[in-house]
Amino acid sequence: MDADKERFTALYDAHRMRVWAYAASRVGRQAADEVVSETFMVAWRRFAEMPSGSLPWLLGVARNVIRDSARAQVRRDSLAAELRTSAESAESDVADGVVDRLALLRALTRLSDADREVLTLVAWHGLSTKEAARVVGCSTAAFGVRLHRARKRLTAAVNEGPPAPARHQSMAKEMEWS
Fold first, then answer.
1. Is the pLDDT of residue 124 over 90?
2. How many CA atoms lie within 13 A of 95 on its CB side?
3. Residue from 15, 74, 3 nearest 39 by CA
4. Which of 16, 51, 81, 130 is most buried, judged by most C-beta within 10 A?
5. Taking the CA atoms of the chain, what radius of gyration do you get in angstroms?
6. Would you say the pTM of this structure is higher than 0.90?
7. Which CATH class is domain 2-82?
C-alpha cells in the first residue's frame, strides 16, 4: 500500500500542473482546481488500471470530468428554468385562485342560510352527503336534492357577478378567514 501511495504521489506531482493547465484552458482558472481534484480522484480509484503513459490517460479523464460537469450544468440550468416557469405559473394560479375565491364568497353571500349550510357542510367541512344529512336532520336523498339545488343557485350567483349586498358583507369577511 505504501508503494502505491508513493507512486500516486509521484504521478500527482509530475502531472498536476499539466492537467490543471489543460483544465484551465477549457473551463477557466476557477473551475480548473475542481477538475484536477476530480481527475486525480478517478486516477486513485482506477490506479491499478492506469496505463504506463499516464498523462494522456489523465487528460482524457479530465476531458470526461469537464464534459460530465458541463452536462450536469445544462441539467441544473434546465431545472432552474423549469422551476422559474413553474413558480411564475404558480403565482398566477394563486392570483387566479384568490379572484375565484372572492367571487365564490360574494356568490355565497347571495344565497340563503340553508343553501350556505348545505354547501359548506360538504365542500368546506368535508362531510359526505350521508353525514351532512344527519347534521341537517333529513334523509340522505332529501339532502342530495337540497345540495343539487344549492349548487345550481350558487352557479347562478357566481355568474351574476355584481357585488354582494351590504347586509352580507360581514358574513363574507368571516368566511374568508375560516
1. no
2. 6
3. 15
4. 16
5. 34
6. no
7. mainly alpha
